[in-house]
Amino acid sequence: MSALTEYELSEIEHANREDKQTVIFIHGLWMLPSSWAHWQSYFESKSFVALSVRWPGDTQSVEEARNSPDLFAGHSVPQITAGIAEFISKLNRKPILIGHSFGGLIAQKLAGQGLSLCTVAIDPAPFKGVLPLPVSVLKAFMPILLKPADRNRAVSLTQAQFRFGFGNAISEQESNELYREYAVPTPGKPLFEGAVANFNPKAGTKVNLNNPERGPLLIISGEFDHVVPRAMTTAAFKLQGKNENKTEFVEIPGRGHSLVIDKGWQEVADQSLKFIHENVKA
What we know:
The protein has 282 residues and is of the alpha/beta class. 40% of the residues lie in helices and 12% in strands. The chain has eleven helices and eight strands.
């Protein structure tokens, strides 16, 4: 029996009725699918079918998520990836995938499975084999990783933690506004999976880097990102660059981890569209 919800099945039916290319947006930790609302509207205006997929436990609203944090507890990267893979399997043709943070990692995992026509990974969380571990990453996540019980819990960010991890490259006022609008509890397990990936032969964050069916891949990096700094994104780019498909890297000057939800989101969307138009036949 399918694990997809009625809402997800209706989204699939809608995409399959349309004679347009489907783009699937994949959110990261501490976000919901609704965080892609601006992007979805923008891509729809450019003649795409734009869908934002759910992780297990995702709620419709931020308020509901904050009131029910236990819904997010215990979900792993492989579990989240498998759910999205099932969603993709019901589509009539391969979609374009755009993911941010852990959503960018998941997009690369799906591309490595040959499930993507073209992929954009924005400040993607590191996959197994990405070795750099800048100090800012430790500062952002150590409060969670030092509590082993958080692995199977839902974890939340304080406003100050959000400011450091997401909103360091924007004003404090905008960061606080984004926190109130978007920040929700998130499963702690993906953080622990990422932390030990390079010591685990069966790491849940492993990506198939060699699949010839991967398709074109763009990695976008925010210049001032604290949680996925350039050292991480360039290491991912070098590893992905060994694939026979096109792999490109773009750094967005002056931007942090909030680059897909802050006031400058359209600049990032336009970089994504440029790559898609160059690599996907109409």
